[in-house]
Amino acid sequence: DSIVITTTALLQPDTTQLAATSCDPTQTGVSVQTLTNQFGCDSIVITTTALLQPDTTQLAATSCDPTQTGVSVQTLTNQFGCDSVIVTTTFFDSTNCVQQTILKPENPGCADIANGRLSLEVLAGAPPFVFQWSNNLGNAGTGVIYNLNQQIEITGLPAGDYAVTITGSGGGNSEILTANLTATAPIALQVQTDRPACRTEPATLIWTGSGGTAPYLLKIDGWPVTGSNVRLPEGDYIISLEDSQGCQTDTLLVVEPTFLPAIALPPDTSIVLGSVLRIEAVTNLTLWSDISWQPLSDSICATCLTQEWIPLRSGSISVTIRDTAGCTASSTMYIFVKRTMELYIPNVFSPNNDGINDTWQIYAGNTNITLRTAAIYDRWGGLIYAWEGAVAPDSWPGWDGNAADRQSAGAGVYAYLLQIEWVDGTIEQLAGDVTILR
Q1: Residue 182, helix vs strand vs coil
Q2: Of residues 90 and 387, which shows the higher confidence score?
Q3: How far apart are CA 246 and CA 240, in angstroms?
Q4: What is the phi-psi region of residue 357: left when phi exceeds 0, alpha when psi lies from -120 to 50, beta otherwise?
Q5: What is the C-alpha to C-alpha distance for residues 264 and 209, in angstroms, rounded to an integer?
Q6: Mind listing the pLDDT tens digit for each residue in 26-40?
Q7: How far apart (Å, rounded) are the C-alpha atoms in residues 419 and 58?
Q8: Residue 120's closest CA among 137, 96, 136, 141?
Q9: H or E segment at 386?
Q10: What is the value of pTM for the model shown?
């Protein structure tokens, strides 16, 4: 036998120290990595990663725009993920800036009011700035703008063409700006009323508006009105129209009272048949187009306010008047015709030629009647006197007390028979007695 004794010693692992940097804080620190070769031996790699600080660059710049001044920070990342910071400080430098101004016009809100304006704002240039303005109407003015981005308003301007000159500090830079202020057309208001003819109801307001800036607001005596059906009783009103800019125009509207024709006849009346009746209508018109009577009693003056005639029977009479606008008014009255005879017939006379009551005569007074026949009879019924012929009673010569043979009738009582005709053709017989005194 032979004996082989092998002593195997432990091979210590190989350790390697590495250093690294990173822009990512989460990647910093110490990392240990154990590696094994093909023989099973270990080697250890220890990597220490340090944080790489970003690179910072400071820059300086100038600007004519005050809004661009200040400090800006920009972070850039390269292809390895590392940051670099650029800090730029921008300073305002007006020495070489081109002057820049904004001119904003605002038109007058109302045509007849100078309330337009121009707004000035200098964005770039060397303050302070002196401005001068003028228009084609001969108005002008000046002012000062002390700072950039300071808004200055020129107010109370009428419509017109404007030129504004802005000059910077030292007079080096100057601008001329133009603007036109245009006014709206004046507000026009037309009003009228509509009311049905011959009616007393309130009138309907009809209006139209133009000019200004729609929409419009209608006011009556200062109170806003909505809706289209505006009714106005008689009276005076201030009608106003206001547009959306607050511009307003006013007009006076007079709603006249409705004038309706009126006519009136006298109260109902009575009259004795045969009498003349005269009636007169009273009206509030001084001019009219037509008058009509129903029935027409006085054809001689059919369109007169008066009628004069002899009513033959009771009834109503009406009158209608029409004015020049076609409106009418009517009135009616009732006439009661009385068949009352105002006839005086003496019952005694004395035909003795003494000049007193020598003739028997009858008297009709105001009664319009006709005596057609008169007959006198003695006590035995003998006709001793007769008259025939239509005559007014007061025009009848009467009976002188003689018989038909011209012999005097003796004293005594005699009967009479009279035939009376009314104006309407009615015949009435009147009988009685009369006494002769001798």
Answers
A1: coil
A2: 387
A3: 11
A4: left
A5: 45
A6: 778 888 888 776 777
A7: 152
A8: 141
A9: strand 383-391
A10: 0.49
